[in-house]
Amino acid sequence: MAQCTTDVRSTQVAPQESAPQHCDLPMRIAAVEMVRRLPTAPAVFPFAKIVNVVDGVCEIRTKERSVILPVGSAVAVGAGRWCQLVPKPEVRVWTVYADDELWRRQMECFLPIKQRLVPGLHPDDWDGAPLVLHVGKERLRALEPIWRQLSLLDANRQPLELVTARTIELVARWVAAVVPVFLAPDVCSEGLVDAWHPVDGRLTDPVLVGHIGKAVHVLRARLAEPWTVSSLAREVALSRTHLTRLFARYAGAPPMRFLTEVRVTEFTRLIEETDMSLACASLAVGWSDPRVASRWFRQRFGVTPSQYRTALSMHVDSSAAALNPAVG
Asked: Which regions of the chain carry the CATH code 1.10.10.60?
């Protein structure tokens, strides 16, 4: 087996933001978890995007302005507008891409009375310029299971009707949880009850929630280890069955599928931000066979890692000429 050096030189070009494979789900919406240590290249997407900062701090740069997003913040940017993410110094975000016009119509259904909202937050008042929302760290992290489940929906592998129903359900739960952010102070004083209601029973025990937090931290910190459900259960002193139930509730996926998704996220960062070979990047996140990494990467983004790197270099070569006039 080829040796992989741990002294990795970062590339000097800004990586292109990892777009989802497609937004052709029934509601034309997709969610992607991303980790960044280097700035992305400025990029324009044909979708509206909502960037949710769940860990760290970043700067979002657009033609209109730049905004600093601490953990617990979100920003919406309209379709067709260039956008660049600059981590400070590292950030983990969930970015949701959605059809711009369809998303506006959906939000009009959720927020039908403009007079009850904070001025400027009704969909009809938004011109697509960066719109910052201070959602709150705990609320955003509580939404991670919803985004994770949304990211795993696949109309090519699951019944279309089921995917449609699940998409509507997940989007409704997401919006219900952040509705208080949109409402004017006098409306909130009506006694609005927070819409995020965890299930009752032992799964809400703070001790058990602490166990799942520890398990998630261990997996993220030790990706390269050959984890199994049994070894992870031993690490956090829980039964395999209960650990699996906790992951489904609080992480949005069973333990090993969660691990796979986190590995894909870190693998993506490595092939974007470093000169690591695909084999070494694969090994660094726990896959001894790079074909496994390639298969999961392609399932998320629709291209192989090699194709993605080629497209990345072409994008960097052309982005300055294409976007600098807009910047100026």
From this structure: 202-320
Given this model, what pLDDT does residue 140 score?
93
Q: For residue 103, with 0-12 CB atoms within 10 Å meaning exposed, 13-18 middle and 19 or more buried, which class applies? A: buried
Note the CATH architecture for domain 202-320.
Orthogonal Bundle (1.10)
pTM of this structure? 0.84
Cα(100)–Cα(120) distance, integer angstroms:
17
CATH 2.60.120.280 in the chain is located at 29-188
CATH architecture of the region 29-188: Sandwich (2.60)
Q: What are phi and psi of 48, to 5 degrees?
A: -70, 150
Give 110's contacts (C-beta < 8 A, 6+ positions apart). Answer: 172, 175, 179
Residue located via tokens 């891409």: 97
For residue 247, give the nearest of 145, 139, 143 by alpha carbon: 145
One-letter amino acid of 191: G
- Taking residues 169-194, what's their average pLDDT? 83
- Residues 152, 90: contact at Cβ < 8 Å? no
